Amino acid sequence: MVLELAPFRKLPWLVHGFSTRGGGTSTPRVRTTLDLSYRDGDEKQRVERNRRQLQQALGASDFALLPLRQTHSDLIHMFSAPTARTPQGDASLTSRRGLLLAIQTADCVPLLLVDPEKRVVAAVHAGWRGTLKRIAEKTVGRMRLDFGSRPRNLLAALGPSIGPCCYEVAADFVSKFSSQFGDAASYFDRARTGEEPNPLEWLSQMPPGHRPPPENVHLDLRKANRSQLLAAGLAEDNLFISDLCTACRTDLFFSYRKEGPRTGRLMALIGIRGNQ
Question: What are phi and psi of 225, to 5 degrees?
Answer without folding.
Answer: -75, -35
